[in-house]
Amino acid sequence: MPSRKFADGEVVMGRWPGSVLYYEVQVTSYDDVAHLYTVKYKDGTELALKESDIRSQSSFKHRKSQSSSSSPSRRSSSRSRSRSRSPGRPAKGRRRSASQSREHKDDKKKAIQETSLALPVLALFKRSENNTKRYNGEPESTEKNDTSCVILEQKLKPDLEINRVLEQYSLRSRKDDKKKEDIYSVKKTFVAVKPIEKVPTKTKELEFGGRIGTFMLVFLLPATVLYLLLMCKQDDPSLLNFPPLPALESLWEGRVFGVFLLWFFLQAVFYLLPIGKVVEGLPLSSGRKLQYRINGFYAFILTAAAIGVLLYFQFELHYVYDHFMQLAVSATAFSLALSIYLYVRSLKAPEEELAPGGNSGYIIYDFFTGHELNPRIGSFDLKYFCELRPGLIGWVVINLAMLLAEMKIHNLSVPSLSMILVNSFQLLYVVDALWNEEAILTTMDITHDGFGFMLAFGDLVWVPFVYSLQAYYLVGHPTSITWPAAAAITVLNCIGYYIFRSANSQKNNFRRNPADPKLANLKFIPTATGKGLLVTGWWGFVRHPNYLGDIIMALAWSLPCGFNHILPYFYVIYFICLLVHREARDEHHCKQKYGLAWERYCQRVPYRIFPYIY
């Protein structure tokens, strides 16, 4: 990047974000790392702009129009004419007042033109503020609500109406009108600058340990799943009691792989059914919005009906427990094959369809993080489908299979209280995710991360086979708990769920319609693109209250397993690490996109996840 072009304190012309209009601003500082200028508008608004959005004032000097005054000879001859007046000519006093009135009209029209120039910017701010699909932006100087724009617009309407009448009944000559059009065309050549097309750049900041880290994770993640499942099968699942490795032929069975394929394609059929509403996602870098069919909850109902039919015909669902390890290996093999297909097809994808975080140019890194943002086969969105359907619904089916296996192995007429709690808590979580399916369209997984091995393995293997670890553990290690303990754990889970759901609902409702009267009590920090950062409610308590609720629920899911071993608490330990890492990623991306607004938000809300702790 070359050295900075504009100095601190220099007055320049800055482009308003999202428009083609330039306004006079003053450079206040420069960020050498992000290569952004912090500029200040006349109204006090501070934004961070790229150098390409700033121009010197000299480039906006308009061409001087040719003088319409008469030649000296004509002026002298006019002075030599007779000073006598015809009866129809006005008196001197009246002439002076008419001249003053013309000057007054010109001043008023000039003021109206200035206010009319502010209206497109005002309208732009209103449109972008009510647009729930934008993500982030740069800050304004003060907190606002939606009434200020309406009041200002109402104040400007009378002046604009006067201007319209003056233009319609103007007595100017056509020659003056033509000159005005020439001057206006000159202004347009300077103001209406054609926006520069955004060209996707290479990913420079590598996450997950870069090339070496992602290479190791490709092998470490499947090994972790295998280790956890083997530990649960042991009588003593202590960390120091390393399980013996099974024979390779016992890990694979063609019939089990066929069962997994049947499950995957059954969910694909449910996804393609023309039921449920169709919504638009966030705008892509090209401005295009993809459409998504919201029918995950219907797929869950159809799956429950199919399971009910199998149980009615006495299908042994504990088959899942008996072949749990083989199912995990089958899912791993399928996710690996899917990841290879996704990377190969991404090599032919247009630049604008590549993921912002998976376009590094390094094969292993892009393979892991995902090279293409939204890979689709026709209208079938592979990432969106895998995000909720096979793994999340499969998680509930696995839990049910573990419940039935516990009853069969231990000859129980009803499942244990611990198993009931685990199944109930996690069923509530999955149903909530499917019922609020539309909210996933604004998450980082959909908007930022590409679809590669990380998400494919996470959706198809990690979620169903690791998140069900507590139920799998209870089959081989039954744990009895008292009713008061069960009531306390239930209250803890309800608290976590309330924080999780109310925080997400507050955020999603604000994104969908910030002008909703029901949200009038919420304060926010405005941004240049119209998005607001909530500083009241749950989002004024900590920066990620939904993560806090998630962690509380994760703890409630593990407590029914007792305290004999740490293995069932792997999920809550892993989840804390995952959300702390994701919070760091969120922090990095939000600081880049929000800029100064995010710094102000962090000052208002200092705690990230845990209040008064972190």
From TrEMBL:
GO CC, any one term: nuclear inner membrane
Biased composition (Basic and acidic residues): 101-112
Gene3D superfamilies cross-referenced by the UniProt entry: 1.20.120.1630, 2.30.30.140
Topology in the lipid bilayer: Multi-pass membrane protein
Reactions catalysed according to its record: 4,4-dimethyl-8,14-cholestadien-3beta-ol + NADPH + H(+) = 4,4-dimethyl-5alpha-cholest-8-en-3beta-ol + NADP(+); 5alpha-cholest-8,14-dien-3beta-ol + NADPH + H(+) = 5alpha-cholest-8-en-3beta-ol + NADP(+); 4,4-dimethyl-5alpha-cholesta-8,24-dien-3beta-ol + NADP(+) = 4,4-dimethyl-5alpha-cholesta-8,14,24-trien-3beta-ol + NADPH + H(+)
Region (Disordered): 53-112
Assigned protein family: Belongs to the ERG4/ERG24 family.
Protein source organism: Polioptila caerulea (Blue-grey gnatcatcher)
CDD domains per the UniProt record, alphabetical: Tudor_LBR (cd20381)
GO molecular function: Delta14-sterol reductase activity; DNA binding
Pathway in which the depicted protein is active: Steroid biosynthesis; cholesterol biosynthesis
Keyword Membrane: yes
Single GO BP term: cholesterol biosynthetic process
Name used for this protein in its record: Delta(14)-sterol reductase LBR
Keyword terms of this UniProt record: Cholesterol biosynthesis, Cholesterol metabolism, Cytoplasm, DNA-binding, Endoplasmic reticulum, Lipid biosynthesis, Lipid metabolism, Membrane, Nucleus, Oxidoreductase, Phosphoprotein, Receptor, Steroid biosynthesis, Steroid metabolism, Sterol biosynthesis, Sterol metabolism, Transmembrane, Transmembrane helix
Catalytic EC class: oxidoreductase
Domain Tudor residues, every copy: 4-62
Compositional bias of kind Low complexity: 66-75
Listed transmembrane segments: 212-230, 250-273, 294-313, 325-344, 455-475, 481-500, 521-542, 562-581
Subcellular location per the Swiss-Prot or TrEMBL entry: Cytoplasm; Endoplasmic reticulum membrane; Nucleus inner membrane
